[in-house]
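Mods, move this if it's the wrong board.
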Amino acid sequence: MRRLPGGSLPVYADEHVVLKLFPPVHAAAAPVESGVLQALAGSWFSATPSAGRTG
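Not the wrong board. Structure tokens:
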């Protein structure tokens, strides 16, 4: 797993998993982003990661 460059929050990824860390100051954004991923699942023209686990 390696850290992806750029972005406002730390994001790590490998071939199968994307891990995005939300520090306490940004905790309210986590459920919003998870909801967007769930809403887009299967309906976007390109592959969209699913929110496998949150918390």
